[in-house]
Give the backbone structure.
Amino acid sequence: MQAQNFVGGTWKSGSGEKILNYNPATREPVSEANSSSEQDVQEAVVKAGAAFELWRKKPAPLRGEYLYQIGMLLKERKQRIARLISLEVGKTKVEAEGEVQEAIDMAFYMAGEGRRMFGHTIPSELPDKWTMSAREPVGIIGAISAFNFPVAVPSWKILPSLILGNTVVWKPSPETPATATEFTRCFEDAGLPPGVFNLILGDAQPGQFLVEEPRVAHISFTGSTETGKVVYESAAKQLKRVSLELGGKNAIIVLKDANLELAAEGIVWAAFGTSGQRCTAASRVIIEEGIYDQLLQRILQITSQLNIGDVRDENVDVGPLINENSIEKVEAYIKRAVEENIKVHCGGKRLEGLPGHFFAPTVLGPVDPTSPLAKEEIFGPVLCLIKAQGLDEAIKINNSVSYGLSTAVFTRNVNHAFTGIKGIDTGIVYVNHGTTGAEIQLPFGGTKDTGNGMREAGQAALDAFSEWKTIYIDYSDKLQRAQIDTDLL
Ligand code: NAD
């Protein structure tokens, strides 16, 4: 497939170098595209700027009609888009379809916002004066996304932006141009006016052009913490608005009073789904003293039943890693574990005999909480087991990493559950469920190095992509001074 940019309502190739993209399970080519040059990015920004002047004036309920249409098209094309996700990212069919469902949910949720988008009406401190606040669009949104959720994550950025009256230039991951093309077709076929939504392909360089382009008002970035810092610094020079969704080092705390069978199932799903390449993937299990061996055995049992391979086979549970660099990164961590005399209970090596980038689901333990294995994002199918004396120590260990995305607690004691919820410092907390499984009507995001305090999804997304306008209307026909004329009646 030849993937192209979509700019001002027209498909055309970027004018930069050629990028070849291949299936991580087979290493067979999937698509070919040309990277976007600075001029290509500028052209997309000019089209988005012109479209903004018209789009912002369209009544929000009418903008919502387009989003309903996009949702319907995503629904109709769910299987087709999911197949491309599986091909490019190596996600299983159920996970890929679940991901498209997230975008469908977001389209309908945000379409409904076209008839809500609440502001506030607040009493004034002066008589005969009316005060209120309303949302305004920000302008052109530059959306930059990661490879691992090529449809769901962009939908969290693009759909709230559009309903609010912004226009968008989206640069997806260079690993997923075919999925990005199919996703973009839903916007095209929904009849969005030209320039309201634009796609530019390529990697870091066009991403950087977008961040540096002065007419882009807001950068919404999802990716690694390392890249997020570069983006933030560069955007700060122009005092540009930025929202960052970055890495994680998520933990599952398992207490003695937990349903251990449920905990083990939740752990394996959260750790090895998408081969551990989810920002919310469980990378640590912090286990209360006394149940370590029992839980370990159950985790190993369930892990041993996982089928690993090409996800076109529907019996496969765990697909490939995205590329050779990811395999090498995981291998380096396993080497480190061996050096630290940490026991490799299962996995620990790439799968030979398969053409793609497969790494066996790996369980390591016990891992010292201060080890780099327990602190750094591995982004592969590697689970580190850590021992803790009790809940207080488990919370301390959980909070001792620089990331703050998602933590889960397994317990059947309501006091422990609430102590966990209060003490854990991540943006998302689950009780009796693994660290993954976000729903689109709730805020999504993390603390510390996982971001810059912004949230995506839910009502929080409206805050990310709008400006508040505060309005004072004085109908007293005289000069009334706030804070000074305090007793006018
Ligand atoms: P990455 O940082 O390598 O790339 C992310 C995006 O940034 C890509 O589109 C890339 O082309 C672009 N990019 C790279 N350099 C750039 C630059 N200098 N300026 C502008 N854009 C640039 O990340 P990845 O490997 O695609 O994804 C994995 C990472 O994403 C993990 O760390 C994961 O935790 C994180 N992630 C976070 C969330 C979240 O919501 N918190 C969700 C998904 C993924």
The chain has a mean pLDDT of 97. Residues 144-149, 153, 171, 173-174, 203-204, 207-208, 211, 222-224, 227, 230-231, 245-248, 279, 377, 379, 405, 450 surround nicotinamide-adenine-dinucleotide (CB under 6 Å). The two ends are 73 Å apart (CA to CA). Residues 5-246+451-471 form a domain with the Aldehyde Dehydrogenase; Chain A, domain 1 fold (CATH 3.40.605.10).
